[in-house]
């Protein structure tokens, strides 16, 4: 299953971009870390199917969804996915397979610098003096 989700060609491009792991302690080393390719397969599976991290079956990647989520967080902070995205775009450009005539921009990732149309001011619903009913 891992080879289906992360083919050898993709893995050969992603693996050099992953940050090096810190060395294990000699005393009380803890559990062996999960293989990076298995964690990437779990990430791809969750993103592809839309399931939650906790629903990730152990049989798919051989690790838990929480482990995959932690790797996604760590790799995102290290800039791995931005580097992978740039690498794949460069390869598509080199092959003349990148067509920018059809592009989708997600508004959650693009800042609206000039804003949009402003709505009319809303009336305040805060505390205000009320007429005495006595």
From TrEMBL:
Name of the protein: Transposase
Q: Which InterPro entries match?
A: IS402-like_dom, Transposase_6_like
All residue ranges annotated as the Insertion element IS402-like domain in the record: 7-85
What organism, scientifically named, is this protein from? Saccharopolyspora erythraea (strain ATCC 11635 / DSM 40517 / JCM 4748 / NBRC 13426 / NCIMB 8594 / NRRL 2338)
């Amino acid at each position: 299953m891992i080879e289906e989700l992360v083919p050898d060609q993709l893995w050969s491009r992603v693996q050099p971009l992953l940050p090096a792991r810190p060395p294990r302690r000699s005393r009380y080393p803890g559990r062996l870390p999960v293989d990076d390719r298995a964690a990437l397969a779990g990430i791809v599976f969750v993103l592809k199917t839309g399931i939650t991290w906790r629903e990730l079956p152990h049989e798919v990647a051989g690790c838990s969804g929480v482990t995959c989520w932690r790797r996604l967080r760590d790799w995102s902070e290290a800039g791995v996915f931005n580097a992978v995205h740039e690498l794949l775009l460069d390869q598509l450009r080199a092959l003349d397979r990148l067509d920018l005539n059809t592009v989708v921009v997600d508004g959650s990732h693009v800042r609206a610098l000039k804003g949009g149309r402003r709505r009319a001011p809303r009336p305040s619903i805060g505390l205000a003096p009320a007429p005495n009913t006595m």
